Structures are given as C-alpha cells and as structure tokens.
Amino acid sequence: MTATIGNAMKPLHTNRLILRNWEDRDRDLFFRINSDERVMEFFPFRRNRTEADAKLSEMRDDIERKGFGFAAAEIAAIGECIGFVGLTRTDHLPFLPEGTIEIGWRLVPEFWGHGYVSEASRAWLAFGFDTLGSDEIVSFAVRDNRRSTAVMERIGMTADPTRDFDHPGVPESHPHLRPHAFYSLKRRDWEEQKRAAN
Ligand SMILES: CC(C)(COP(=O)(O)OP(=O)(O)OC[C@H]1O[C@@H](n2cnc3c(N)ncnc32)[C@H](O)[C@@H]1OP(=O)(O)O)[C@@H](O)C(=O)NCCC(=O)NCCS
C-alpha cells in the first residue's frame, strides 16, 4: 500500500545535500545529465536542450502534484544542483505491477565517487517507507551498469535475478541495453537494517 501525499514537495535535508523540486536555475545542469555521453552510456536516448527543458518542466509539475519524484539534489554548502535522486511510481507490465515504487539517480560525472547518491538514497528510502508507507522499493539498471547496481548494494538492496527483465521501453535497435538487473528492498529488511545500525 502506498499513500498519496498530494501536496508540494517538502525539501529533504541530509548531512551534505538538499533534495528539492526543480528550479529554472537547474536547466543547464538538467540538459547536461540528459545529453552527456558518460552519464547517458546506458540509455537509448539523448535529449536536446528543448527536450530537456520540457522534461524538467514536466517533472517539476509532477513533483509539485505528488510531493515526490526524481528530485534535484543540491550540495548545501555550494548551493549547486548536481543531478537527481528520488522515488517515482513506475509500471512496466508485466514486470513491474502498477503502484511499484522505484528509486533512481543520475549525477554529472564530476560529482561521482563522493557518496552523494547513497546519502540521498537513504533519505529517500526513509521517505518511501515512513511517509509513503511502501512495503517494497525497487530499482533496476542495465546489467552492465555496475556503478548503479553498486549503489543499490551499498544502500542495502538485494538482487533478485528471478525478476530480471528485458526493459520494454528500450528499442530493439539497442539490444545490449535491454537486459535489466532487478533489485529490491522490503520494509521488514529495511527496518532490520535500521535496528542493526543503531
Ligand atoms: C550511478 C551513479 C549515480 C553512481 O554514482 P556514485 O557517485 O558512484 O554513487 P555513490 O554516491 O554511492 O558513491 C559511491 C562512491 O563514492 C565513494 N565515497 C566517497 N565518500 C563516500 C561516502 N561518504 N559515502 C559513501 N561512498 C563514498 C565510494 O567509495 C564509491 O566510490 P567507487 O565508485 O570508487 O567505489 C553515477 O555513476 C551516475 O550518475 N551514472 C550515470 C547515470 C546512471 O547510469 N544512472 C542509473 C541508471 S539505472
């Protein structure tokens, strides 16, 4: 069961980050994370500036309506957005039933390797389980996207190869990007990990 929040997103604060809705000042950065070849290595599309601007506006409205989404991650000390980390509802039938809550991320390369995504993800997991009342949060990535599956493992998610799938949104023209590794974190395991950490 997943609750609807139904109001504007309240920023989440972590040690180093502010997780918040998109703003117009993020547009250059958002274009970069939709067009940079390193960032988009495992995606079958690139967005030009016009498409990226439209997507940012769409995501901002969606987050405004729902109270969460793939939200901007800003380094508090420098006031600069470095990419996104967040939760979204997803459904790719028959692999992901309606109402599935996915955690996802994308940063500009100069901020990889500092633990920012793991830090933000822990805040989003707490939001998903505590505020949304989710029973399970999932994530998936192109099988070769080791940097992404490493984040999943770092934040306590478990691979479930029985749920691996060929992503239906990836065109036949990119066969190497179709096979996806599936990870999940169940509420009971998240609570157990929290207890063990305290
Ligand atoms: C996938 C992606 C988000 C991972 O970013 P990341 O910075 O490696 O992720 P984390 O925040 O977990 O950082 C972990 C790294 O920071 C290091 N680190 C430094 N300080 C740290 C800290 N305080 N806490 C945790 N890790 C820390 C870790 O050792 C690790 O380094 P390593 O990669 O050399 O092993 C990034 O590579 C990316 O944006 N890729 C392109 C987009 C993409 O593929 N998105 C996913 C689609 S499914």
Describe this structure in words.
With 198 residues, this protein is α+β, with helices and mostly antiparallel strands. The chain has a single domain (12-197), classed as Aminopeptidase. 32% of the residues lie in helices and 25% in strands. The chain has helices at 27-35, 49-66, 116-131, 146-154, 187-197; strands spanning 12-13, 17-20, 70-75, 80-90, 100-107, 136-142, 158-159, 165-166, 179-186. Strands 1, 2, 3, 4, 5, 6, 7, 8 and 9 form a nine-stranded mixed beta sheet that branches. A hairpin with a 3-residue loop joins β1 and β2. The longest helix has 18 residues, at 49-66. The protein is globular. It starts with 11 loop residues before the first strand and ends with a helix. The chain binds coenzyme A. Residues 39, 42, 105-107, 112-118, 141, 145, 147-148, 151, 154 line the site of coenzyme A (COA). Coenzyme A is lined by residues 39, 42, 105-107, 112-118, 141, 145, 147-148, 151, 154.
List keywords for this structure.
198 residues, alpha+beta, Aminopeptidase, 5 helices, 9 strands, 25% strand, binds coenzyme A
